[in-house]
């Protein structure tokens, strides 16, 4: 179904694609359906449905990229309300890396740092690369407490799992502490 809809959209037949896209799909393909609906709504010019689709994509992904795409379709007066809502949502839960990243990109560095400090125990569950990116981001923004918490978590992970090949990186993180 996905490839059929892609072909219809590629060959400038969005109305035909929308017939398939507006039907129910299996749950595991829902994100793909929403992405294709987004493209279809852009081609047909249906701003109301595009607004709903982008909001649903943002709710499912909780990323800054999906949020900026959602903001693109909002009126100026709705954007401020959406930003406030996104900040509250980021502070309340979900993936700590995505939440901190979103707060940071929305210019809320203090709130992002407070989130990291309040939920530091959740950092142990994060992927190494995501945590390192977060640590560097905070270090660059001069948010020393959050950067320290991230580097400390990275160091503890290296030591706890006895990753001897990563001891050099661990020494660098220790120096940053």
Summarize the structure in words.
With 177 residues, this protein is mainly alpha-helical. The chain contains 11 helices and no strands. The chain has a domain at 96-177. Helix content is 75%, strand content 0%. The longest helix has 17 residues, at 76-92. The termini are far apart.
What does the average pLDDT come to?
89
Number of helices: 11
Helix/strand-derived class?
mainly alpha
Q: What is the helix/strand order?
A: HHHHHHHHHHH
Tell me what portion of residues adopts beta-strand conformation: under 5%
Q: What is the molecular shape?
A: elongated
- The percent range for helix content is over 70%
Low-confidence segments: none
Please describe the structure with a list of short key phrases separated by commas or semicolons.
177 residues; mainly alpha; 11 helices
